[in-house]
Amino acid sequence: xxxxxxxxxxxxxxxxxxxxxxxxxxxxxxxxxxxxxxxxxxxxxxxxxxxxxxxxxxxxxxxxxxxxxxxxxxxxxxxxxxxxxxxxxxxxxxxxxxxxxxxxxxxxxxxxxxxxxxxxxxxxxxxxxxxx
Length: 132
What we know:
The chain is an alpha+beta fold. 12% of the residues lie in helices and 25% in strands. Strand 3 and strand 4 form a beta hairpin. The termini are far apart. The model has no long low-confidence stretch (mean pLDDT 92).
C-alpha cells in the first residue's frame, strides 16, 4: 500500500518495529519533542487509526494530508503515513506484538532499547546468550 515515511530531517528508523499500543485516535503535538506553538514546524493534530511502533513517537497512522506524496515521497516526521482507508484496514488487521519492518528510509537502525528493538538482534547472538 502506498505510504510516506520520515522526511530527510526526521527519517524513520529502519529495522523491525513491534506494535506496542493501539488507539483509534491520538493527539500528536510537536511540542512533545521541542517544537512548540509559535515556532516553525509546530503542529497539534488529532490523528486516526494509530499504532505505536517505537517509544520515540513512530506510529503507523492515517495521514490524509499526505495522500498525494504517499508512494512517491517521504514527508512525515518519522511515522508511517497511510491514507485513511489503508490506515483503517491496517488497524483492523494488525495488533499488539505484530512486527512492522521499515527499510530504505534513510534513517538509522531502531535502537535496541526502543520498545522491542531486540527483534534486531541476530538469532545467533541470542543463541550465544549475549545481546550486545
